[in-house]
Design a protein that fits this description.
Structural class: alpha+beta
Strand content: 35-45%
Largest sheet: 8 strands, mixed
Strand order of the largest sheet: 30-31-34-33-35-36-37-38
Helix content: 10-25%
Radius of gyration: 24 Å
CATH architecture of one domain: 3-Layer(aba) Sandwich
Number of strands: 38
Number of helices: 10
CATH topology of one domain: Rossmann fold
Distance between the termini: 38 Å
Length: about 625
């Protein structure tokens, strides 16, 4: 007998994806191989980051230790650990020091002093030294320290505003890194530096020569990697208009472009330690992740011939991150997910099926419980084409007639991208009977340099137009109920929410802002170093662009908001301080606009704690029922 779905009103479907399940779920941020084939990954449990060790044979995985929380301490974080020579080297969250701990038996010990903050450690080929990024009193440097922690760290490079991607050459005599200066962001313009080092027994390495080999103020360089034989330095550059793979021959000093199709092979470097490719064991091949319209595929390319081919992983995976190739058997470790596949740590041997080592959820639901992303494009309010991902309502047990209510989820950044990875927030809504649109408005990554640069000077204009037009497009196509549309976003996405409600009242029944930007003047004055000059390109430099800042700061037009709002804020947010949200709340209160405000102690820019996430999702569900479903 065929099971029949029960008819029930959209937005009221009982869902197995509960606030508790999301709050208790794991997240994975990185994977790394030791020389002997041991795999280590970082997983986040609530607000703690743990390193998990999977030996090459026999034993099950285990936590490296349960004492320290692992988290990179520079900028937005990332680059929190590395492994090599039988040890893990990690940044401890509270002290921001680098610790060393054997992957077998042994206790963690600090190897950097307790001042400033560290990130992106990389161990030298002989296991004697670490390169790492260090910041202290707003000065970022590239530094080196011995792995025993007997020497005070030495600055190798300073003077640039930012450093990223430190790498050792396989001979231990060379190093490479990426640097850039204000007002650029790393996706605007960076340089790739190649250095030779002097090595004196009993002392730390020192710089001998430094040469800029790629990049400039208008070209973004991402992730240098030396080939195992030391002949090449690979990197990603957007000089062609897309992030493509390149090789630099260290002998001939010639550059060679490896990929050349309209797709992205790099990504915006919001955090340290990001990777999209890795050399094979003998250096004859590169394995890389290709991003086309928010869908990722895995490829290999032969260095000698330039011949590339897609690797046939399971179809359920539509997004990959943090690729790492084992130095032993060539297995490829990845963080993998898809619309219907929650995030996993997998290992893939080309020619075979992948193996799942760790799952972020219990995965006790059938695939029919999840909605699948559908890439789409539409014409914005000014006629220009914009892109996004659409998710229809989906529940294995319930259905309804007519167009569904719509939640438009606006990404942050604003140089970000919504991709076809598993997104618990999306599935929380679709399983309850909402459609979801994730717009990749002009300014988003993933569609080439020109599309990414389109938002410069137009923040608060193009992002809003593309968001509003996307919602209207779905309503016109019968894919959304025009009377029950909601706009929701965090940080820069929260800013877009506020402007959309001010400029286009009545389009959305309600708005949800998480730590949204409300005042550009105070943001420019108060935010952290990484984004201190970000507004120079998005709005213009001060004081010349003061009028633009005023026109596009939501707080100065908050009295125009007419639609119900829910606002969520971390009390310890250093990127968008709580004053920004509370200024909007005061305006809503003053004008009698239905609203609610939730301030979470101990949370920063983005929510991490299990109890916070549980409360957040329950509050959002209750808010939508009151102001959208039953309104």
């Amino acid at each position: 007998m065929i099971d029949q779905k029960t008819h029930k009103q959209y937005g009221l479907w009982p869902s197995p994806i509960t606030p508790q399940e999301i709050g208790q779920g794991l997240d994975f941020s990185d994977v790394a191989w030791n020389d002997d084939g041991t795999l280590v990954w970082r997983e986040r449990r609530s607000d703690r980051g743990l390193l998990i060790v999977q030996p090459p044979v026999g034993d099950a995985f285990r936590a490296l230790n349960n004492t320290f929380s692992v988290s990179g301490g520079v900028g937005y974080g990332g680059g929190s650990f590395t492994v090599g020579d039988g040890c893990a080297y990690f940044v401890e969250k509270a002290s921001k020091r680098i610790y060393a701990q054997p992957l077998g038996a042994g206790s963690p010990r600090p190897i950097t002093p307790e001042f400033g903050a560290a990130a992106a450690p990389r161990v030298s080929p002989d296991g004697e030294h670490l390169l790492f990024i260090h910041t202290y009193e707003n000065e970022d440097t590239l530094a080196v320290v011995d792995t025993e922690g007997e020497h005070w760290p030495r600055k190798l490079a300073s003077g640039a505003d930012f450093y990223m991607h430190p790498r050792w050459g396989p001979d231990g005599q060379h190093a490479a890194w990426v640097s850039w200066n204000h007002p650029n962001m790393p996706w605007d313009g960076t340089t790739l530096e190649l250095a030779t080092l002097t090595r004196t027994p009993g002392d730390l390495p020192a710089l001998k020569t430094v040469t800029t080999i790629a990049g400039d103020e208008t070209t973004s360089i991402f992730q240098p990697e030396f080939s195992p034989d030391g002949r090449y330095l690979a990197y990603v550059s957007d000089q062609s208009g897309w992030w493509q793979l390149y090789l630099y021959d260290l002998q001939s000093k010639e550059h060679r472009q490896l990929t050349d199709i309209p797709a992205e092979h790099g990504k915006p470097a919001w955090v340290q330690g990001m990777r999209t490719y890795s050399f094979g064991v003998n250096g004859e091949k590169l394995y890389f992740i290709r991003n086309q319209k928010g869908i990722a595929t895995l490829w290999e390319i032969e260095i000698a011939s330039g011949q590339e081919q897609q690797l046939p992983l399971e179809e359920e995976y539509t997004w990959f991150e943090q690729i790492a190739v084992s130095p032993q058997g060539g297995e490829i470790a990845l963080l993998a997910s898809g619309g219907r596949a929650p995030k996993r740590v997998i290992v893939y041997q080309p020619g075979e099926e992948s193996t799942v080592l760790r799952r972020s959820t219990a995965e006790n639901l059938s695939p029919e419980a999840y909605s699948t992303p559908q890439p789409l494009s539409w014409s914005s309010l000014d006629g220009e084409t914009t892109h996004g991902l659409y998710y229809p309502p989906q529940n294995a047990e319930f259905t309804a007639e007519g167009p569904p209510p719509l939640v438009v989820l606006v990404h942050g950044g604003p140089t970000g991208q919504r991709v076809a990875s598993y997104n618990p927030k999306v599935q929380f809504f679709t399983s309850r009977g909402y459609a979801v649109l994730q717009p990749n408005y002009r300014g988003s990554a993933g569609y080439g340099r020109d599309y990414r640069d389109a938002l410069k000077g137009k923040w608060g204009i193009f992002d809003v137009a593309d968001t509003v037009s996307g919602a209207r497009y779905l309503a016109e196509e019968g894919l959304a109920d025009t009377e029950r549309m909601v706009v929701m976003g965090g940080s820069a996405g929260g800013f877009t929410v506020l402007i959309a409600l001010e400029k286009h009242p009545g389009v959305f029944r309600a708005g949800i802002s998480m730590y949204g930007v409300a005042n550009h003047f105070t943001l420019a004055a108060d935010t952290h170093k990484f984004e201190k000059r970000y507004l120079d390109s998005l709005l213009g430099p001060l004081p010349e662009a003061a009028e633009v800042y005023r026109e596009r700061s939501p707080i100065f037009a908050a009295d125009k908001i007419q639609d119900a709002m829910a606002i969520f804020q971390g009390e310890d947010d250093k990127v968008v301080p709580k004053d920004q949200s509370e200024a909007i709340v005061e305006a809503l209160k003053r004008n009698g606009i239905p609203h609610e405000y939730h301030l979470y102690p101990g949370e920063g820019h983005g929510f991490r704690k299990s109890e916070t996430l549980e409360h957040f999702y329950k509050s959002v569900d209750d808010f939508l029922r009151e102001y959208v479903i039953f309104a």
